[in-house]
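Example record used in the benchmark description.
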Amino acid sequence: MAYENLEDLVEAVRAGRPRAVGRMISLVENESPALREAMRALAPSTGRAQVIGLTGSPGVGKSTTTTALVAALRARGQRVGVLAVDPSSPYSGGALLGDRVRMQAHALDGEVFIRSMATRGHLGGLSVAAPQALRVFDAAGCDTVVVETVGVGQSEVEIVDAADTTVVLLAPGMGDGIQAAKAGILEIGDVFVVNKSDRDGAQALIRELRNMIALGDYSGHRWKPPIVPTVASQGQGIDDLLAALDRHRAAGEQTGEWQRRRLRRARAEVEALALAMVRATFTLGGADGVEALAEAVRDGQLDPYTAADRVVADR
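Model output (structure tokens):
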């Protein structure tokens, strides 16, 4: 269906029409000039969806867990959004894995919105466009949005600024799974999932996780991350995962951490957009602006602090 104007598209997004949601997210990814007006119109319809982030190293079963989790949420009667962040094609810049390939079971469900989004070289496990895409899902009436990160390992900690609850997946038989994770990923987990828990080594992995969690300070009503064993390919443990997610939300709402996280998320989103706008102005000066200052710094005629002061003074 074609939309004659932006107002029609916004109304269709609010009505939860899949094609409109997809088109609006395309505007986000393409940084359309109409995006500012669209986000302004959608803002009153946002703020209700629960965002669950799934992260972990490649091979732990993030996509399988996402599929099983969506099925469980749909059984509750929820409308669900899925943002699957994929590696970028070195040729087109697009996502290497398509949403219909990885989420076949839900591709025809009108109450499940699935979108694959390329990182386009952005580090941290997410796409630059992810926060605005989440807002589109929220405005479309999704009760829960699941964000599956790209699966790059230690640097994949950006999800903590995008999600209400961060789920860290691990699996036995992954070699140095814990070693690969503890440099950053373990610190951000609200819930730990040991997937493929029917395999040898699962109990040893759970014990190691418990030992590492025990080193943390959980005084002052601070949330202590639970460990949930699952076999996502068979749907085992998914109800326990949902129960852990419910407990985390209830605990956060009771302590005020839930709203603090959402404030932090909004702050990070505003800061990122503001920095992007400032950065964009740097390219407008050409050889007479920042480029000339950079040449002076390169040639030792100017120090970088003075150059930066001049850039700011000219804005």
